[in-house]
Here is the input.
Amino acid sequence: MKSHSDRLQSRPGTGREAIGLALAGLPNLGAVSARALASVGIQTRADLAAAGAIGACERLLAAGHGPSLNMAYAIEGALMGCDWRKLPCEFRQQLARGFRAAQRRALQPREFPAARQ
Here is the structure.
């Protein structure tokens, strides 16, 4: 019998969605989070590990998604294979500082080169 992900991948036009949903199999990440991550190019656990929790949140912020601090915790917990509420307090504080810094960077106006005349 085919698994749920096998059935998704065998349907026409669902390959990209199935990749995003693969992240939904990680602890703390559901289908909505997985689709948001896939929309910014994070489609596999390896992609998520390469970006890291704060890097993934930076991409989401840049794309106009509104990730929360809890999402940063959830991503880190997913990478560590544990419930985000089990992350050590010091580690959560470090993630909170990184997340707030990412939010500030996302709000800063971007400088564009002057137009040539």
Notes: Residues 13-107 form a domain with the DNA polymerase; domain 1 fold (CATH 1.10.150.20).
